[in-house]
Amino acid sequence: MPDARTQEIAAEQRVVDRVHERLAEMRAQADELAREGHGRAAGGSAAGLVERDVLVRNAAAQIATLDAESEGVVFGRLDFDDGDTYHVGRVGVRDGLDPLLIDWRAPAAAPFYRATSGEPLGVVRRRVIISRGQRVVDLDDDVLLPDDVGDLRVLGEGALLAALRRSRGPHMRDIVTTIQREQDEAIRAPARGVTLISGGPGTGKTQVALHRAAYLLYTDRGRFADGRILVVGPSTVFTNYISRVLPSLGEESVHLRALGELVDGVTATRRDRAEVAAIKGSERMRDVLAELGWQPAPTAPTRLRLVYSGDVLTLDADVLAEARRRVRARCEATGTPPNSARPVAAQILLDALWAGADPRRRPDRETFAGEVGERNEFGGFLRAWWPALIPADVLSRLADVDRIVGLDTADAAVLAATYGDRADWSVDDVPLLDELSALLGDPPPEPKGPTPLWQLRELSTGPRSVDTFVLSYGMHNGWEVYQPGHPTPFASAGAQAIDSNAVAAAQRWAEFVLLREGHKVVGWTDGFDPHGEEGYVPELEEPLPVDEPDDAPTPDPYRHVILDEAQDLSPMECRMIARRAEYASMTVVGDLGQATHPLAVGSWPELVARLGKREVRTLELLTGYRVPQTIADYAARILAPGIAPTRSYRPGGTLSVRHVDDLATAVRDAVRAAPDGGSLAVLVADDAEAELAPVVADLPGVALVPAATVKGLEYDQVIVVEPADIVEAEPRGLNRLYVALTRAVEGLTVLHRKPLPASLDDV
Ligand SMILES: Nc1ncnc2c1ncn2[C@@H]1O[C@H](COP(=O)(O)OP(=O)(O)OP(=O)(O)O)[C@@H](O)[C@H]1O
């Protein structure tokens, strides 16, 4: 006669078997429907069910194939005081109309992560079902008795301890079976405004961020599916480490990107040293780049010469420089980016040529512009003088220190030097490339062969409409008022002289005209009329209604953006993310104690402001699951003031701090002394990597990791080499060392030849 436990395991096995049978049936049905040509596209509720089945089938297939070692599709059971029982799993599965398995993200499954004896939510027993693939191997029960003294410290203690004891592999595993209450609250927080999740090392912030992405997809698939959620991590090493979590939860459609991969066509992995990162990351770069975008391309010609009616017309360097200034002024006044400025440039050049032509032989300005603008030699000059700008080319111009406007000489020299010997882009360049894309605008299509007629007509068809009232003076017609949306004047005052009295008189006249139109003028500023000539723009008491553009810009596709390690985002990185999150709610995850970027924020409100967002809900994770208390306490000695240390749940842990004479020998010895199995990393200051590489090369299975790239990662055994060098390497070196010391899951060894930061001295 099997014992009670064995019987219980057998009963759960029957449930697991039934779920898998049902999944197989659903899969067959979904395949059948796909063959019949029913797809996800059909509408109506029947089609909705089909769509759901297909999704469930896909999710389940993914879970099964991706993680043969997985804890299984069914992992939990809730028994309620009214006799009801649910099974909880990675996907929802129905048996006819009855739920067989409830998706962990469904509201009905929430008590699995929330019920405690203090607040049982109707649950009398929570069971974690522990499986290997499809075989149930063990059960872990919490019996929630309302009269129990105190609260449970953790949920599913046995399963949690088992999960924590497992050694680390090359990829992070999901925690769906053992999510803790405070983590669950953060995962299920509504997707409005900004949800800020802070917590010390190992409190599960990354896990929460990823499970939250899966949760949001479940609650509102229509809003978030098909790549509408973006998750941003600090490095490609990190995104690779966490890349398996969402697929193991059955979700593939989230965009997971490292900061260095946010711009299409660029994969940057190296970071600049702190001194350079502090310049590139600073908000000042916006002005530097804006200036750069208007500067002439290094290859721009400096003289235009063409023959008109037997005369040689020439625009030399000074005139061209003045023309460039005018193009810029006109475009900046109307918000036209450099890459859309070529028609304006053409008009200004043609005006300058016309002004230089012999008045006896030249036609009126419009006819002249039409004739000359059509010539290929003019089109060719124009494209060379005002070329289409590509962000990468423009950024490379920073190698020339004379082009850098907006930085002091020392910073400009540092910056120019990094581009001078640049072989590839750094992660810190990516926000600059992105900023340039926004500043330059889309490049105009480059015509092949002769300039097409449509473009020439565009240059020669005379006035365009303006978007506000303009008062301007013309040689033939005197003072004229233009109204928004129209290229022709709607009131003319006739020829008059143009002197300061005449301007004041004309403005008074124009104010009467506008008052008749129902607008009160409160002042005047400079602007341009539809011919591109300087004019006067009235400031109205009531703003003009803005017309909706016909072709509204395509909204940013992301509906939710999740930022991990957000404490380190520079102002320019925040701008890059804000452009992608314009229409998105956000989840911001981080730990100010681990801030290492020289421009990292000092507080969370500052970061939220950098991201251009306001409404914030803050959640804090207080319990650590990675670092054992002994190690956490040691690391906390160098924790920045004002930040609460983490209370660790992980038992055990070993800590050894050794002063040594020969680091290479000490590393070898420490590796040999480490327990077998599990992962082991040697963490060093970035500069020391080359020195220790030959030592580690002889030690199989050992990773040599520069401290600058270890953020977010973890290893069973960690050897930190020469902390003083890690601290000295950068302005926030102490925080970097704190990150390095908090990567260990089981054992931390600190090896040093130089003195340690004082507080780390004795153990
Ligand atoms: N509820 C949980 N059940 C099991 N393991 C957990 C749980 N929460 C966290 N962990 C484990 O603890 C470790 C740390 O989690 P995670 O990397 O998400 O923490 P973090 O707060 O992002 O850390 P850091 O700030 O150092 O990057 C991981 O191995 C994770 O799987």
Automatic annotation (TrEMBL):
<keyword id="KW-0378">Hydrolase</keyword>
<dbReference type="InterPro" id="IPR014016">
    <property type="entry name" value="UvrD-like_ATP-bd"/>
</dbReference>
<keyword id="KW-0175">Coiled coil</keyword>
<feature type="coiled-coil region">
    <location>
        <begin position="9"/>
        <end position="36"/>
    </location>
</feature>
<keyword id="KW-0067">ATP-binding</keyword>
<dbReference type="InterPro" id="IPR027351">
    <property type="entry name" value="(+)RNA_virus_helicase_core_dom"/>
</dbReference>
<dbReference type="GO" id="GO:0005524">
    <property type="term" value="F:ATP binding"/>
</dbReference>
<dbReference type="GO" id="GO:0043138">
    <property type="term" value="F:3'-5' DNA helicase activity"/>
</dbReference>
<dbReference type="GO" id="GO:0005829">
    <property type="term" value="C:cytosol"/>
</dbReference>
<dbReference type="Pfam" id="PF00580">
    <property type="entry name" value="UvrD-helicase"/>
</dbReference>
<feature type="binding site">
    <location>
        <begin position="199"/>
        <end position="206"/>
    </location>
    <ligand>
        <name>ATP</name>
    </ligand>
</feature>
<dbReference type="Pfam" id="PF01443">
    <property type="entry name" value="Viral_helicase1"/>
</dbReference>
<keyword id="KW-0347">Helicase</keyword>
<dbReference type="GO" id="GO:0016787">
    <property type="term" value="F:hydrolase activity"/>
</dbReference>
<keyword id="KW-0547">Nucleotide-binding</keyword>
<protein>
    <submittedName>
        <fullName>RNA helicase</fullName>
    </submittedName>
</protein>
<dbReference type="InterPro" id="IPR027417">
    <property type="entry name" value="P-loop_NTPase"/>
</dbReference>
<dbReference type="GO" id="GO:0000725">
    <property type="term" value="P:recombinational repair"/>
</dbReference>
<feature type="domain" description="UvrD-like helicase ATP-binding">
    <location>
        <begin position="178"/>
        <end position="628"/>
    </location>
</feature>
<dbReference type="InterPro" id="IPR000212">
    <property type="entry name" value="DNA_helicase_UvrD/REP"/>
</dbReference>
<dbReference type="GO" id="GO:0003677">
    <property type="term" value="F:DNA binding"/>
</dbReference>
